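Lab notebook, bench 4. The sequencing result for the construct came back, and we need a structural model before the next group meeting so we can plan mutations. Quick request posted to the team channel:

Model the 3D structure of this chain.
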Amino acid sequence: MSGPRIVGARHWRSVVSVVSSGRIVAVPGDGAYQLAASPPHRNALAVLWARTTPSVSDAPGIVVGRRQQALELAPEWSRETSMLTDRMWPGPLTIIVPAGEDILAWPGAKEQVLSLSMPTSRPVRALCRACGPLVVMMLRGADGQLVTDPEDVEALFGDDDVGCVLDDGPCRGPAPTVVDCTESPPLVRHVGALPESYVDAALMMGNRRKWFAKRSGPAAAPR
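Done. Here's the predicted structure in token form:
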């Protein structure tokens, strides 16, 4: 069984046609490689869920290439959510927000919430800008360990299973920090690459800017 084709990060455009054809690809994520599928291709989504056995921490998420894509997926976007994403995206931050009705209609979708991230990998963000948001799931080997190298992805699958692997180097490092933005104030569910203090600081600075804006206000008209 031959493995999936490994595509260098410079040639990410060649992955676009694979994703657009409705096939699963492997892409670098923050902390591990991920299997990814395009939501409009329902068969690819069904295969993605069928080929993974996620733990609670490996629940499917969605990666986006630009903020507008996230806003279109999440109808409820609070000011606090903006504070966090303005400061920490792109980066190892996953936010939990209410899912829109379109998301709930996807195959395998069961939760009323959505895990969103904008990855640090530039080729993956470019891929999302070209193909749209991607549903992703952390990839683990037979030993249960996260897969961090593209060659290990190649060894796990045949080219009939995964269309190609987008190689942006090893993905060693902590997983993203997960913040639940359905709560107010947002609640840190998992501390990963970003310390909880970073989340607190982003919210504090956002509130401080709002306070100063109110204090300054428009200048009083001269009498």
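The helical segments are 13-20, 42-50, 67-73, 79-88, 101-104, 122-131, 150-156, 196-216.
Will bring this to the meeting.
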